[in-house]
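Interim report to the steering committee. The following record documents the input for Nicotinamide-nucleotide adenylyltransferase (324 residues).
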Amino acid sequence: MNAFLEGAYVTLIACGSYNPPTVMHLRMFEAAKSFLECRYGCKVIEGVISPVADCFAKPDLLPAKHRMRMAELAVKSSKWIYADSWECSQKQWTRTLRVLKHFKEIFDRKFPHMRPIRVMLLCGGDFVDTFTVTTSKGTKLWEPSDLLEIIRDFGLVVLSRGKSNPMKTIESLPFISPKFHSNICIFDDDVMPNEVSSTRIRNAIRCGQSVKYCVDDNVLEYISKHHLYLTSTQPTFPESSRVSSSCTSIPTSNHALSYSILPKLPLTTHLNDTSNSTTDNITPTMNTTHRTATRAENSTVAATETFSYTQNHHNSDIMQMNDS
């Protein structure tokens, strides 16, 4: 029995770059919903995808207008997951805690007769592992007070990934009382234990490899129509894992995506990049009564992307993101 979730109505919030959104982002929502409802008897009423704002530092980050539209297309057929433009329309980086509070206000008004409502952060195990990271300046990546409030008042739904050990990480945090451990739900996806990532999708497109069935068909059509991911801005592959010169974007007459058979990318390739970009003026496209919100902070994409960043508490936040 879990008093935190018993009889609760749950909304799941997953934040990240969605660059592009993949089938694993969507699968994480479905697996989490199934796990929570079967294991704890709660009712998952909504899932929210929130693309990060353009000010999030990542050279390879497409403008939010593209990422938001792809997210909308990815969830077009879903009856309970939707993409929200609140965060990606912000002109500055938004902390995860602030995003969760924003959602709580929205859902409390939207569902006045549903109590209790739990707004929970949906993420991957590698995201939780960043809770103990110390920056090069010797400061903590996460504010302990933020982590305490997130876990105590909102809760985490964590998909185990790779070698991550989220519960061990949580137990190592002295400021998180064991009484709040029940607010953290960790699950495995035995149905589709895959590691499709946005980084691999982008690299495959540049190499002319097919990414069909890795992203929604509507998303794939959008990528092709707008000639996205054919080039990379400031690629930062380590020399040891760079793609060979034979694996490059294939020029075509109309620059559309090509799916020729080319050497496959090493599955261990990762893209690390840092930068700052300016936020476009984006008007939220969703109905605010039903769509509102989400975060960007010391964040990560729950299902497939993890972000690490360093904070400057006075003026700016310099962030590094590692899609995995």
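The domain at 9-193+274-323 is CATH 3.40.50.620 (Rossmann fold). The committee is asked to note this result when reviewing the revised timeline.
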